[in-house]
Amino acid sequence: EVRLAESGGGLVPPGGFTRLSCAASGFTVRHNPMSWVRQPPGKGLEWICSLDPDGMSHYSPSLNGRFGITRDVPKNTLYLDLNSLTTDDTATYYCVKGDKSAATSGPRGPGTRVTVSS
Description:
The chain is an all-beta fold. It has strands at 3-7, 10-12, 18-25, 34-39, 46-51, 57-59, 67-72, 77-82, 91-97, 112-116.
């Protein structure tokens, strides 16, 4: 059974940094494309980035290079580093099994909320 569990969200000041984790089970992140999406309050899901099995990463241009997607193969965990956060980054963040095309339909975890506020 595919299971994803995000963690690491919370309250972050503007300009700050945080790291989100996504523990996977029932499959390996090493051999599957993985993505992060987010849903700001009152808005729809937004694709953020993806990591291919070969290690190639893809990012939404709107992020301006502030986020980084990585994985830890032994821990079967996906990460998202969020830098230079702004209030517009406030959202619930989800990891998704699949590439960008599966961003809104692929299996995802319950999400973790990031609130950017002073």
